[in-house]
Amino acid sequence: MKIYFNKTYFLLFLILLFVETAIVCFFSKGFIRFTFGDFLVVMLVYCFVKSFLNVKPIIAAFGVLIFAFAVEFSQLFNLIGIINLQNNLIAKLILGSTFQIGDLIAYTLGVITITIIENKVSYSKPST
C-alpha cells in the first residue's frame, strides 16, 4: 500500500461531500436523506481512501464496507451514549444514532455500485 495523492478521486470526494452536505441541509427526512445518503456516503469514504492510498479497488471497497458496518453496529450498542456524545451534533452526524438494517443494505449497494464502476473504468482503459 503506497501513500500518494490522486486528484481525480479527491475531486470526486469533494463533489460527493457537497452532495451529502446538500442532502443534510435540504432533506430532513425521507428516502433521499436516509437511504440515498447512506448509499452515497460509502462512495464518499471510498473516494477519500483512494485519494491517498494506492490500493486495489476491491480492497478499498471491502474496507469501506467493513467500516460502514462497524459504524452501523456501534449504533445498535449505543456507542455514542457510552462515550457520552449523544448531545454532540457532529458526533451524531458521523456515528448516527439509530441502527437500521436498511442502512446496511444501502451501504452494500453503494459498495457494489462503486466496484462495478471501477471494473468498467479499468476495462475501458487502453493497455500499455
UniProtKB/TrEMBL annotation:
InterPro entries: DUF2809
Transmembrane domains' residue ranges: 61-83, 89-117
Keywords, sorted A to Z: Membrane, Transmembrane, Transmembrane helix
Pfam families: DUF2809
Protein name: DUF2809 domain-containing protein
Source species: Gilvirhabdus luticola
